[in-house]
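We close this part of the discussion by returning to an individual protein. In the encoding step, the backbone of a single protein was reduced to a row of integers, each denoting a local shape. The sequence in question and its structure tokens are set out directly beneath this paragraph.
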Amino acid sequence: MISVDKHAAPRVLMLLYSLPPVPMGGAELQGMKLAAALQAAGTTVLPLTWGKLWHPRSGVFNGIPFVRIRSVLNIITDIPSLIKRNRKPASVPTRILYDDSREITNQMTGRVGLAMILRYRLFYLNCLIYLWRKRKQFDIIHVHTIEWPAFVAVRLGNRLNKPVVIKDSTMNGITNILRYPNGGHKQQEIAAYGNFVAMTRMIHTSFLKAGVPSERITDIPNGIEITPLPSKASPWKQRFIFVGNLRQQPAKGIDILLLAWKALIKQYPEARLDIVGEGDLTAYQEFARNMGLSESVHFLGKRQDIRQLLLQSDVFVLPSRREGMSNALMEAMICGLPVVATDVSGSQDLVEDGVSGLLVPVANVEALTSAMIRMLEDPTRSIEMGRRGYESVKEKCDINKVTSRYIQLYQQILSSRS
């Protein structure tokens, strides 16, 4: 464990985009993982998230207590939301296939709607009311994703005279702020006030382009618990696995994966692909069936035994069009799996092409097919790449090292202010 003087440890208020019963993403999972590690190291952490009128005010996730911020003012947003939820929703077909030559598929482009605008404005007001009397009970505000929680955190920091640490959990999060009303001003406001954590080279560059001074950017990757490198428990079975949220198309590139897989099984008809993650499984199964892939592609849905599924597989594939630093990728590499991934943020930081895995261009069916076939052609070399990938993640992403760097960052920021 990390040795930290508890009397000197900073007290951290952590703002998260969502916590149960609201669905969580990878950024929130990383945030709560960091919160647990910080508390184990002697740092006090209070996670806050938004809540609706019918949500309990407090909760616990993986042993970490958190608070949902809400008030009677939530009637402005919650009642319309409840009415809409109780109406029978229109049936909207799940879209799987995208055309990268004609569409922007590697970032969010839709303008933010009125409901979201009301939510973050109300959340800011509720937070200010809740935190005003507690402002001496915390030293620093940490926000774990650049979406509306980032400029809520900056405005709270200004009002409460607290420094703010902002982590970007996707490769273009600070650019996504431009989707909001007066987004350019919000981006400038965040860049001028925050202290930033870049978990990848691409995110670091995005910060600089947005006007963040280099001295206020600290490079810290995502963290993962390090376990011993498992031995290969079963013989090589030509078994590939993907893990990710299918609802995040086109970001996850499942259409590219299935198109590449159709070409692969012509040469390796015994190969199998497991696709793990929640989404409209009926639509994906029909899509695969129409491509003639029903026998070799299996949609397993959301699973709790992901590590076991990884250990039963031979190769992990991540065909994403955009990422931050994929939790699923780190989990696969810590299981010793060789990786085929697109050359995007996170993957390019963890995978050394040809050494610890194979990197391919985004949305390139032929390149993805070729890389997966290379894995099958030389199992011995592929297994060695998996071993080197394990060592890479162990060196870069040990949660204890990551936590120690966050504590150092908090202390540096507080020391410079004092």
Summary: The radius of gyration is 22 Å.
